[in-house]
Amino acid sequence: MSESLRKEGAPVLPKEPPPLTDREFTGYQKLVYREAGIWLSPAKKALLVGRVSRRLRELGGLSFGAYLQQAEEDAVERVRLLDALCTHETHFFREPRHFEFLEREVLPRWRERGDTGTGEGRRVRVWSAGCSSGEEPFTLAMVLRHHLPAEEDWDIQVLATDLSTRVLERARQALWPLEKAEGIPRNYLRAYMLRGVGSQEGNMKAGPELRSLVRFQRVNLNDGQGLVGRFDLIFCRNVLIYFDAASKARAVERLLNHLSPHGLLFLGHSESLTGPGWGVRTVMPTVYAPRLQNRETTRKG
To answer: Do domains 22-85 and 96-297 have the same CATH topology?
Structure first.
C-alpha cells in the first residue's frame, strides 16, 4: 500500500516471508534433530511453516532462511524455535490404567512396608518427563499424596520437566480452565483443587499443598544436562514417538540411568521397549522395571 493511500494511524503489518525452500527445511531438520533429537519428516513442513511464521512476523517479517541463521547463532532463539515446534496435548489422569496400577498395587505395597524398595525410607522421587502444561505431574502429586499421607512422614517430590520453556511457565502457574476438571475423580478434586472466583472464575488452581510437591526444570532428553539423582517412578509418555531410532535409544538410556533399581518406567500407549538390549522387563503393557529388580513388583494375577 502506498503512503498516500494508507489511512493515518493504521498499523503497518510485516510482510509475509517468502516460502520455505526445501534447502531451508533441510537446515531446520538438522538443527532440530541436533538440538532435540526430534526428526521432522517432510510431512511436517507445513507444521513448521505455520508455527515459525508467527515468530518471523514478530521479528518484522524475517525470512525463513534468515531466521534459521539467527537460530543457529543464538542459543536463546534456538530455545524459542523449539518452543514453537513442540506439540503439547495432555489432560489429567491420561491413560488411566497407569494410575489404577499405582493405586491398586504399587502405592499400597510401599505404604505397608514404609519404603519404596530403595532403602531410603519414606522418601519418594518421581520424574514426569515431557510434562507439558502440568496435568501429568499434578495428577501424580494427587495420587501420591492421597495414598502416602504427610502425617505418616512421606517425603514426596515430583520433578516436572519439558523441552519447552513456554509450556513450563504455564505448568508452574498450576492454573487450568475448569473444564479440565472433568478427568479428575471427585474426591481428588475436592481435596486438592481450588475453584476460581472473581477474575479467576471459570478456572481452577492446584492447592498450596499440591504445589509444594512439584518442582519444574527445563530438561532436553537429547542431552540430559542438569538432571541428577534417581527416581522411583519415571513417566515419559508420548514423547519417544517423536524420536528416530538413534535418538530414542539415547533418550531411553538416560531415562534408565536415572531410574532406581527398584523403580518403574511408564511409557505411552503407543510406545514400547522390546528386545533384550534395554535391560528391562515388562511389568504390564508400557510399564517396565530393571531386569534385576525383585520379582515382588511384578503385577499380581
So the answer is: no
Q: What's the rounded Cα separation, in Å, for the pair 25 and 41?
A: 10
230 is catalytic: no
Could you tell me the CA-to-CA distances from 289 to 266, 279, 281, 296 in Å, in that order?
9, 9, 6, 11
**Given the residues 83, 145, 162, 232, the one annotated as active site:** 162
* CATH number corresponding to 96-297: 3.40.50.150
C-alpha cell at 24: 531451508
Phi first, then psi, for residue 213 (nearest 5°) are -90, -15
Residue 291 grid coordinates: 531386569
pLDDT digits (tens, 9 = 90+) for 187-205: 999 999 999 989 889 999 9
The pLDDT tens digits of the residues spanning 228-270 come to 899 999 999 988 888 888 888 889 999 999 999 999 999 998 8
- For the 22-85 domain, the top CATH level (class) is mainly alpha
CA 159 to CA 129: how far, in whole Å? 8
Known catalytic residue: 97? no
Positive or negative, the Cα torsion across 39, 41, 44, 45?
A: positive
To the nearest 5 percent, what fractions of the chain are helix, strand and coil? 45, 20, 35
Q: Locate the domains of the chain by residue range.
A: 22-85, 96-297
Give the Cα separation of 37 and 224 in Å (integer): 11
Q: How many residues does the chain have?
A: 301
Q: What is the pTM of this model?
A: 0.82
